[in-house]
Every structure is written in C-alpha cells, then in structure tokens.
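step: validate -> pass
step: tokenize input -> pass
step: predict -> running
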Amino acid sequence: CVLCGRTDDCPEKYGEKRTYVEYNLTVHYYCLLMSSGIWQRGEEDEGVDGFLIKDIRKEVNRAAKLKCNICKKKGASIGCVAPKCKRSYHFPCGLQRECIFQFMEDFRSYCWEHRPVQKFTDKEPRGASQCTICLDLVEHLPVYTVLKSPCCKNAWFHRECLQYQALSAGIFFFRCTVCNNKDKFQKEMLRMGIHIPERDASWELEENAYQDLLHCYQHCDVKRCLCKKGRDYNEPDSKWEIKRCQYCGSRGTHLACSSMKSWEQNWECMECRSIFAKSGKYSKRRKRSLAASEKTNGTTCLLEEPPPKSPRQSSGSPRSFLLQSSKIVCQNLSPCSHLELPASGRMTMSLSPVRSNRNWSLTQKHLREQRREVCNILKELKAQVKTKTTRLNINAENIWSNALKGFRQRNFSPTNTIEVDFSNCKNGSKTNTSAASKHHFFQLLMLHLQNSSLFEGSSGKNLSLDFQAIKENLYFEAGKMIAVSLVHGGPPPGFFSKTLFDCLVYGPENVKPALEDVADVDVAQTIQMIKYANSLSRLQSTLQDCCEFLAAAGCLRPVTALCDKNMLVDDILIYHVIKRITLPLESFRQGLKTLGVLEKMQMHPDAFSSILCHKPERLSAETICDLFTIHSSSDVNKLKGAGFWMGYLQDVESGESVVTFEDILLFVTGSCYIPSIGFDPEPTIKFLHIKYPIGKRLLNCLELPVTKTYEQFKNKMELTIRNTLRVERE
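step: predict -> pass
step: emit ->
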C-alpha cells in the first residue's frame, strides 16, 4: 500500500486492497478514506471511488515527510483531530495502538489519548455478561475492546464482534441485537469507530439467494401416498394434482390421497389443523370412517390422518377408530393416544383388558415406525456435519461445566465432527476410543440435563424458572446441546412433557397445560383446592387465603359464581406452567434451532414426540436381531451361525446369560444405547473361522467364530465380552 507500506490483504481490518496496474498504484481503501490531506473531488467512477489519482500522489508525497509516532517510520498520512495534538500515524499502526477512526462525516481520527469513550456510571453492574453475537463472556470494563449498547442497559459486546457484524449486515440491517434499535445504536457505534458500510447485507447480495421463494411446493405429505409415480408427481386437472395447504402452503397432498373430489375443496395440513384445534378456532369436519372412504376410478382413496384430538381427553372418551382393522389403527394413532405412557406419566385413553395387549403391541409398532422416520430426518440434518473436528476435553465428574466450556469455546461449531477425550482427574490420564467416548459423553450429558435445575417435574419434565440460569444463558446452551446430541449420535432425551413439547412445536399460545404439569407442591395444592371447591363460600374463602399468590400471578379477579373457578384454574395453570417461563422457553427454543432441529420438530411433530416424550424402547432380542445384518463366507456357516446367534439373544433376554444386550452393543459399537440417528455404518455380523468374537467399533462390525456346538459359541461370547468390558472399565 502506497500509504501505509504494508502488504497485508485483510479487508475486515484495512478495507479492500486495490491495485491499479496502469497507475502503478496499490492502496488499502481504509488508508485512503482516513488520510487527513485528501478529499473526493471526482465522481464515483473517477480515480479510486472519487479520489483522483493526482490527489493520491500528492497525499503520498505529503505523508512521506511525516514520521509515524508509533512505528517511527515515514509515511504517516493520518493525524489526530484533537486541538493542539500533533500525533500522526499509519492506519494499521493506529488500529494496533487502539486509535479511533470515525467512518462518517469528515472521517475524523483520534489518537489513543484523545479518543472518545463511553460513559460508565457508578451504578453500572460490574462483572461479566454474554456478548450476544459470539455468546462468549465479555467483561463490563471501560476499555477499547468492549462496547456498551446505548439503548439497552445490560447489552455488552466485543468490538471485534460488532465490526464483523456491521460488515456483514451493512447500513440497512446493522442494529442492536437485543432490542433491534437502529438509529441510536448506529450513531453510537459510528462515534466509537465501527465502520458500517453503505451497502446491502451480505446475505442479500448472494446470487439467487431467494430463488427458492419462487418455487411452488409440489410434494404429497400424507402418510400413505397412493400415487405409483411418487410423491413429487403432479398432473394438473386430474386426481394426481397436488393441492397445497390453504393456510401455510408448505404442505401438500394429491387430491386422491386425501379423498378430495375436486380442486375447489379446501385442505389443511396436520400442523395447521393442530394449531387451530388447540386455539378453539377449528370447526370439526364430518367424521369419515374407512367404510365411507370414496373410490376414484376404482382406486381406494385412503383418508389422511384424522383431525387432531384434544391433548387430554377423559378416560371414557369414545375411540371408534379402535374398532377398525389393525392396519388402520396403527396408522391413525397420534402422540396423545399412545398406550405407552409419555414421559409425563399421563394415560390419555381407557381400554378394556381384552384390547390392551393387542393395542399395546400396535402402539409399540407405531412408535418404532415414528423412530425410524426420525432416524431418516436426523440423517438428512447430519449432512451439514463436516470432516473438520472439534475436540472436547471432558472430566466425567464435572460433565456439565466441561461441556459448557467446550460448547462455548470460540472454535466450536455444531457442524464440525465432535471428538471427546475423557480425562481421569485422579491420575490425569486421558482416554479416547473415538465413537465410544462420544456416545458416553452424550449419554452423561443428557442424564445431567434431565436431573438439572433447568427442568422440573418427576418424569415428564417442563422448564423451570432459574434466574441465574437465565442470566448465564444456560437454557439456550441446554437446547443447543440436545440438538447437537441428536444429530451427532447421542441418545434420545425422552424426558420432555407433552406440554413442553407442544409449546416448542405449536407455540405456547396454543397449549393448554394440566394440573400434572405443576411441579411445585404448594401451587398444585392451591389449584386443587380451587378446582374442587364445592360451594361459592368455600371457593371465596380459598381465594382469600391465597390472594397474594393470585395477585402475583395476575389472576386475582372477582368471583360471583362457582363456575368461575374453571376459568380461574386455567389462568393459574397458564401463568405458572407457560407465562412464568416465557424467557427460558424462548431461549431454549433458540438453542434447539441449532442444525435445524426445531424446524424439523415442527414439520414432523409425531415423529419427534416418539424420542423426546417417550423413553427409549427397552432392548430386546428382536431389537438386536433387527439391528444387525448378517454376512458370511458360506451359506452353511451363515445358517448355522445365525441359529446360534438367535439362540444366544434368547438366552440373554431370559436372563440365562451373564451378558446383557447393553454389553453386546457396547462391545460392538462403543455405545450401550441405540442413537436416535442410528449407527453409521449400520451394524453387521460376520461368521469367520476365528477363535474368539471381535468387536470392530470403527466399522460397527461383530465378527463371530464358527463353532461346532451352541455351548462353545455361548461360552466364547460371554468370556470375550465380559473380559473386554471389564478391562475397559478398569
């Protein structure tokens, strides 16, 4: 650069480095802008953005006579504008010495002694808070590297973060990340030396950035698409024309797949229908059973999923669809009709003992189908993960603090491949068995979150209200950790309550909590006393006793009739379970947006409910058998070995083995659970002429010996697996 003499090419620091061969000239844009003896005397297309070449030559000659007060070399083209200050310096030297350069009006520059500072009052809170751009901690100190928002009391930023944000957002989108103020925020940041380029945001300048908005959604999303040419096939003016949801337009169905006779009929997707059902604005359509489903051109048009049921029905609610064929029953089960209890422990339907076993197995089958769907969705999300690695150093005794530190480190990215080193705090040794350590880390992390103060409740948990956790942004980190765990092969959490899940998916305004959601015993007892008051005088007496609580909840109101208690109970529940935790919930939602997990939850609520609200299915002989694919060098070995393998799994299930299914999984894959995303690569079994079983964890491959008798096979399995795992534990 002819002004600063440096060869650095760093647009973020020095502006664009431009070379003009015809003039034998190279210059940094910021060096040119901030030089004290030059002005734009030409048009924008003349010289260098209006700076004439002859003026630049004159400025170079002028600066050649001035010595830089920082590096002591000639060519200092920038001077401090403070009266009587004679300091001159190069632009890069000024940055290094923490000078302020104002990219506005006359492009003034201030040296380190005369630079503008932000005012700090004695009442300003000391300590540290989170920079809302990089999410690292920033000290509340009146120093050059820290800037305070002029419009928010508790918003602090790193100067470097703000500069990068400004360069990316441009003058139209750069604003306070907390309150969204633009004018006041930009004015203060310009005064403090943040350069805000007068151009559109970087994301607006991407070529074809909004091309997707021009595309109409063309995909059939019903559970069973009848079109033989696939879900994306669309033939206008026929039964295979795709009709989009009349509310959101982001879901579709073939007319035939939803028994629609013509294009004029309206159709709503399950997500929109659920929202309207919960808000009470959805008018129930006429009930349609399988017998009433119509046929078009000889093809049976199976109905789409039935309208969503109320989240909590009384135990005697009629369920006519249970009388249909088993195939249809399994298809139409919704999360609220699962016979496997959600994590909240609520039973939402009452079945006779004659039907219970049959429907329990159907529900298990339905849950497996939903979990398979989640597995495929998570594999799509995993496509974002790159081969670049991020290493986390973890001590199992301090799992939370170590995980928090790792997730907050500057080089951590959810899209990097995660590797985990477990350290032993007693002797300082480290262990790293690649996938095994990562699986164990996520298992410990999910267990810690389940039992942490961020959640409350016995089994089905809701978010708690922890002000210290809000201050430290821990709810965001918890959501982020769960999202990262799901995509990177962690276990299904399985402890969300139905209410928490619905708040995340449908929005808190569309959710009606129940008494079981209240974890505070005193609050629950107060609600019960109001709910079961059998006279107006008893009700008023109860309200008098808890008037302070009602006033704090904003639920204090005159009660003139006994029936008023129902509305009062609903208001208390909504306040205590939902409104009270608005900040934690929003922060948790933001964390779950990591890697696009929340968006997929909202698109596939039934599927994600199976892993977030239901505990993982207990490992069984059938589960393990389905998990492994058998390969063998000969059909004889495969047939005989498969028989021994199945017999051994039956022994493990019946308790006739010292080995458990978890031990087998751990031996082969390094994980004692089946991740929601499944294993990659998929587990396989090979029968070979070897002495003992071998678990190849990098390949998820179990190599088994070919033996003459089942007893030999069983003994070798138990000896090898038990001893291998015992050595690993030691």
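step: describe -> Confidence is low (pLDDT under 50) at residues 281-356, 425-429.
step: cleanup -> pass
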